[in-house]
Write a structure and sequence with these properties.
The complex is a heterodimer of chains A (219) and B (264).
Chain A lengths: L2 H24 L6 H21 L1 H4 L3 H24 L4 H23 L6 H25 L9 H28 L6 H27 L6
Chain B lengths: L4 H88 L6 H25 L2 H6 L1 H16 L3 E6 L7 H20 L6 E7 L3 E8 L10 H8 L1 H12 L3 E6 L5 E8 L3
Parallel strand pairs in B: 1-2
Antiparallel strand pairs in B: 2-3, 3-5, 4-5
The chains are: A mainly alpha (219), B alpha+beta (264).
């Protein structure tokens, strides 16, 4: 795969972020807090993607951009799931997890993986959100809030999160070895990551779309 | 020996495919199974609504039947008797006093009074408040024995606990309905009523030697087949927080078992 093709796929992935972002902007006033958080995350994603694509012009290390995005993604998704679970008992647990994640992210940037791809934090992030996504599905099965589950915006968001993190988990597990030991240029893997990003964005767009159709404001 | 790139790629491909397969499987399971679960929940709700509707219908029908029975008794018995008294009194006007005729009139008035007492007892047995449930059941049995020549035996075991008036009335109506069913639908020739008191509550069994009926296996189907009378019984037993069971009696007939818990 040529570098141009890889860049094209990366740009296409960034472009697909615009679909849910604009859908969200159109419906901003009537949106739930969960969807507003997702809209903020999409805004951060677009900014970080642009910064990563033009990092040399901006003179920023691409890994720092990635780390900043992962941190924002973690915090915003954590709040989104906290609101979706609607269970105050989870607050303390989520705060503890957030504290240790941030601690590990900083330690990883400063002492462990440093300038290299910070895949370790991504692995923790993926594992954590895969578990949350499965737990959210369990909650859906238990509570049965609606007859047609596709009408729930949070269903699509959860599908997006699950597919994205489940698909990327092994990529992040092997990425450190591929890049540092085998000196792989990582283009195919990076493109696969971007392809999953596109699927995630389309699923998020479906979430915003059904929020305009669904009579249910919550979930 | 460190793994080659091919091995790493293989781990990546298999791992990613496995994870994506798991994710898709979970999503599909949720999407389809959740719908099925809700449909099942809706079906149960519909059944519950149907049952509630039947209970209401049974209550209204029972009330209407009672009114019709009282109306018929008043019209056919009391009305006719009073008309006869009136005719007798009319025939006495302008005539000399006849002790025999006056005796006839007095007899008619006594009969009318007795009929009014019977109707009143059927509506609300006075025995219930004055002497309690057991005595009222015995009185009901003796009335049936006299009226229809169907012997009704009553036995009571254990230490009777006190029930409030509302509970006693409901329980008496349940027994009355069961006995009535045994005579009307089961063609019973003999009925045994038994009270068994224990620490948990009261168990009432009403056994007859009639023709009985086939018990459907499905509880809901049973309600449909046996109709509103059964719904009425179930309704009353539910109000008492009890349980109602139907069994075949040995060698023939039906046994109705009512278990009422004692609170406090």
């Amino acid at each position: 795969m040529s570098l141009e093709t890889a860049y094209f796929i990366a740009k296409l992935s960034t472009a697909t972020t615009l679909i849910p972002f604009f859908l969200g902007l159109v419906r901003f006033r009537s949106m739930t807090k969960e969807l507003k958080l997702l809209l903020i995350l999409l805004g951060v994603s677009i900014t970080c993607d642009m910064a990563a694509l033009y990092h040399s012009e901006l003179k920023i290390g691409p890994n720092y951009v990635g780390d900043a995005y992962r941190l924002a993604e973690f915090i915003l998704l954590l709040i989104l799931y906290y609101k979706a679970f609607n269970n105050p008992k989870l607050f303390k647990g989520f705060v503890v997890v957030a504290f240790f994640y941030v601690l590990f992210l900083v330690a990883n940037v400063l002492f462990i993986q440093q300038e290299k791809i910070n895949s370790y934090t991504n692995i923790i992030l993926a594992c954590f959100f895969i578990v949350l996504a499965v737990l959210f599905f369990y909650k859906l099965m238990k509570d049965l809030p609606t007859l047609v589950v596709y009408q729930l915006p949070m269903f699509w968001i959860n599908v997006g999160v699950l597919v994205y993190f489940a698909g990327n988990l092994f990529l992040w597990i092997v990425s450190h070895y591929l890049v540092t030991v085998l000196n792989d240029d990582f283009k195919i893997y990076w493109s696969f990551h971007n392809f999953l990003g596109m699927i995630k964005n389309i699923l998020f767009a479906a979430g915003f779309y059904v929020s305009t159709k669904s009579p249910m404001k919550s979930l | 020996m460190s793994p080659s790139e091919n091995q790493i790629v293989l781990i990546f491909v298999i791992g990613t495919a496995g994870m994506l397969f798991m994710a898709v499987a979970i999503i599909l399971f949720v999407a389809f199974y959740q719908k099925k679960m809700i449909e099942e929940q809706l079906r149960r709700s519909a059944l519950e609504v149907d049952y509630q509707r039947k209970m209401l219908q049974a209550a209204l029908e029972s009330q209407e039947n009672e009114r019709q029975r009282v109306s018929k008794d008043l019209h056919d018995d009391v009305g006719m008797m009073l008309m006869t008294v009136r005719a007798q009194v009319n025939s006495m006007i302008g005539k000399e006093f006849s002790a025999a005729l006056a005796g006839d009139v007095r007899q008619l008035v006594d009969d009318t009074h007795e009929t009014v007492r019977r109707i009143s007892w059927d509506l609300k047995p006075s025995t219930l408040e004055r002497f309690g449930l057991a005595q009222t059941v015995i009185e009901m049995g003796s009335r049936l024995s006299v009226k229809g020549s169907i012997p009704v035996d009553f036995n009571e075991d254990g230490n009777p606990a006190s029930l409030d008036t509302h509970q006693e009335t409901l329980l008496f109506r349940i027994i009355q309905e069961s006995v009535s069913n045994a005579i009307r639908h089961g063609a019973a020739q003999r009925i045994d009523i038994r009270f068994l008191w224990n620490t948990e509550g009261l168990t009432v069994t009403i056994a007859d030697d009639g023709i009985g009926f086939d018990f459907p296996k499905e509880h809901d189907m049973m309600k449909v087949q046996l109709g509103l009378g059964l719904v009425n019984l179930e309704n009353r037993v539910a109000l008492l927080g009890g349980q109602l069971h139907f069994n075949k009696n040995n060698p023939s007939g039906t046994m109705v078992k009512i278990m009422i818990p004692l609170h406090g």
